[in-house]
Design brief:
Length: 499
């Protein structure tokens, strides 16, 4: 082959699956059906059918396999590299969980299976509820919500039902200015009004601002603790007292639970409602890799309003679904939740045990502080100082402000250049109150060598930028696609190929 000739792989890389294959080519041919069938008209009347069959790719099995393998290699994933995406807890997903979730008894269970034949699944859900109640320090759990944000919606609706049951209509929800965007979005979706709370110089809630805004019209305070700055608010007992003092509830956004599992419990801090992100703290492939799950745990006074159905166990040890709850806010979704996530989370909790969960959190906090110390040791802190505090919990937020002024590269440039060093970028430009924010969450499943290599890559990018900022500004250079038009992708997405 002469130099410069396009290889078959390069040619295929440039073609979509629709441009490959040939008419009549198949990956797999089913045997003729040899049992009586229903005719097409009965299955789907002609008025609902297309005049011509849909144009689908016609490819051989190797073409099909290569297509998907090629696509999978064009992405960056947790199994190929360090993924310190702050606030997302991208920890390793043990393969044992995948095997357990794939067992036919779990994977093939139909959501409408009659309950006497689904006792094992109900028992798993019930056991998971008990474990989550223990971890949260709150007695009642609903597994229904499908994501953290869905858990938030459940929590705000529960709060509204709680106040309405007392004959009160409260319209405001307090959210700190460090809150994840889903918190205010949820409040607005639930028809309530967002009131932002200021952050004090230590990165916690400004208590004076809280006292000034806490009144009889406040339904709830939504709080993440540790918050999105990676800081545990030491004033939590006083915050709970102020909030409860005006008759409002305290909601715990559990996205950062990975810092405190088995060490402190939101229920003991005074929270009434907690959501878990099973896909983060309890390991699941997530972030485009799989579905999420956002169970909630609540105190006695909130329990009457929980979504239906609730998994219950009777005196004989039989499991059932309780739909008969007069004050319930109703159903939040079809069926009973993302069952595969329950299996994986339960496998994780059972395989680690109480001590193992505590150890995971302690190691997550240690890893984050080790990385922070290593960055300081490498002289990175002048250009990328820690935004708040001195130590951190399981993640930390650096400010790229000095880097931007002194080296003329932005946090986005640094993030993109990290891809060339084989690392997924940390979260950027969040939380909003930090200039040029870079939010790093290493998790407990990374080795010291990986953390060292990441710190050295950041130091190297800053050194390189001091000589030639253009390298970072035009990064990434080694990925299948270069710098993307992210604003264009968000505002004018082309999500459908025209055929
Ligand atoms: C602090 C915080 N709260 C809430 C959420 C929402 O969780 P989910 O993405 O599961 O809806 C996230 C997600 O990243 C988060 O980081």
């Amino acid at each position: 082959m002469s130099v410069g000739t396009e290889t078959p792989q390069q040619r295929d890389r440039a073609r979509t699956i629709f441009e490959q294959g040939a008419a009549g080519r198949r990956a797999f041919v089913c045997p003729e059906i040899d049992v009586p069938t229903v005719d097409a008209e009965t299955l789907l009347p002609a008025r609902h059918r297309r005049a011509a069959p849909a144009r689908l790719p016609e490819v051989s099995e190797p073409e099909l396999v290569r297509h998907y393998v090629r696509l999978s290699k064009r992405n960056f994933d947790l199994d190929s590299g360090f993924y310190p995406l702050g606030s997302c807890t991208m920890k390793h997903n043990p393969r044992l969980h995948e095997r357990v979730a794939a067992l036919p008894g779990h994977a093939r269970l139909h959501p409408l299976q009659d309950l006497p034949r689904a006792q094992g699944a109900l028992e798993l859900m019930w056991n998971l509820q008990q474990a989550l109640a223990e971890i949260a320090g709150l007695p009642h759990v609903s597994l229904q919500p499908s994501a953290g944000s869905h858990g938030e919606l459940a929590g705000v609706l529960l709060t509204r039902a709680f106040h309405e049951d007392r004959g009160e209509t409260r319209s405001k929800v307090l959210t700190p200015d460090t809150a994840h965007g889903t918190n205010p979005a949820t409040v607005t979706m639930a028809g309530l009004q967002v009131v932002a709370l200021a952050t004090n110089p230590d990165g916690g809630i400004d208590l004076d601002d809280l006292r000034a805004k806490a009144d009889g019209d406040v339904a709830c305070l939504m709080l993440t603790n540790p918050n999105t700055l990676g800081i545990f608010d030491p004033n939590i007992a006083e915050i709970a007292e102020i909030v409860h003092g005006v008759g409002a509830t305290l909601y715990y956004d559990g996205a950062n639970l990975n810092a405190i599992m088995g060490l402190s419990r939101p229920g003991d801090m005074g929270f009434d409602i907690v959501h878990f992100n099973l896909h983060k703290s309890f390991t699941q492939p997530h972030g485009g890799g799989g579905p999420g799950s956002g169970p909630i745990a609540v105190s006695e006074r909130i329990a009457p309003y929980l979504p239906v159905p609730v998994v219950v166990r009777d005196a004989d040890g039989r499991f059932a679904l309780d739909h008969d709850r007069l004050k319930s806010i109703g159903r939040l979704r079809g069926f009973h939740g993302n069952y595969g996530c329950f299996v994986r989370a339960y496998a994780y909790i059972r395989s680690l045990g109480a001590e193992g969960l505590r150890d995971a959190s302690e190691t997550a906090v240690l890893n984050a502080n080790y990385l922070l110390a290593r960055l300081r040791e490498l002289g990175v802190a002048d250009r990328l100082p820690l935004a708040y505090g001195d130590l951190c919990m399981h993640e930390f937020v650096l400010s790229g402000g000095p880097m931007k002024r002194e080296l003329q590269i932005r946090t986005l440039d640094l993030a993109k250049r990290l891809l060339d060093f084989g690392f997924h970028p940390p979260t950027v430009y969040f939380p909003l109150l930090v200039e040029e924010a870079l939010m790093v969450e290493p998790t407990e499943t990374e080795t010291r060598e990986t953390l060292d290599a990441f710190a050295e890559a950041i130091a190297e990018i800053l050194r390189e930028a001091a000589e030639d900022p253009e390298i970072a500004r035009t990064a990434p250079h080694t990925t299948p696609v270069r710098r993307l038009d992210e604003v264009g992708a968000a505002k004018r997405p082309v999500i459908r190929q025209s055929l």
